[in-house]
Amino acid sequence: MTVTWEELGWERLTTGVGRCRLPGWDCTAGLVIGEGTALLVDAGSSLAEGARLRARAEELAGGRVTHLALTHPHFDHVFGAAAFAGAELYGAVGLDAALAHEREELRLDAIRNGLPVSDADQAVDALAAPRHLVSGEWTLDLGAGRQALLANVGPGHTAYDLAVLVPGEPEVVFCGDLVEESGEPQAGPDAVPSRWPDALDRLLALGGEDALYVPGHGAVVDAGFVRRQRDALAARFGVI
């Protein structure tokens, strides 16, 4: 019997494309299913969560997760990455260095936010850096006419923000934490506030008016929401 997205706790957005909201930090993971391929967007906050994500994604896809894209280097999006051994790993240029040299900062941030110390230690010890680094745009051919465009649209929320556009009707844009719906966008010490509104302009140019925009936290939004958040961030950070 074929399992449905909803039965596994996922939200179907369009044919072969969906997302789930993970417990704890309400972080979004996305899934794009191709022909004998599957792209996951973000990996969860621990190895155990990554393993659960992989199992459910592969049940929906009917095969292995072959590609993993990390939208930015925060623990709730990357600590599950090592659970996807064998998948081709993608991130924005510089993400590899951030994951290699800022592991202790990531570990401490995870613990401050409530991740058990043992889970944080295990994830940091296993953390893998992306082999494929995106400086502009990178199109993945997932087979059967399915493509996904990886776009380095940052800096903004961090110095290494990657978005994923899935063409179709409607188009779907996975935004990472450049867009947040369930709360005010978080600007930590690694944010680049002066560039964040420009990053949202690039997201809007990428997806257009009719796309579904999938935030890093919260419900799916439209272009109007992204535009309003862009204007609020510009006012918040004094960006003209």
Automatic annotation (TrEMBL):
InterPro entries recorded: Metallo-B-lactamas (IPR001279), NDM-1-like (IPR050855), RibonucZ/Hydroxyglut_hydro (IPR036866)
Residues annotated as domain Metallo-beta-lactamase: 26-217
Superkingdom, natural source: Bacteria
Protein name, per record: MBL fold metallo-hydrolase
Organism whose genome encodes this protein: Streptomyces bangladeshensis
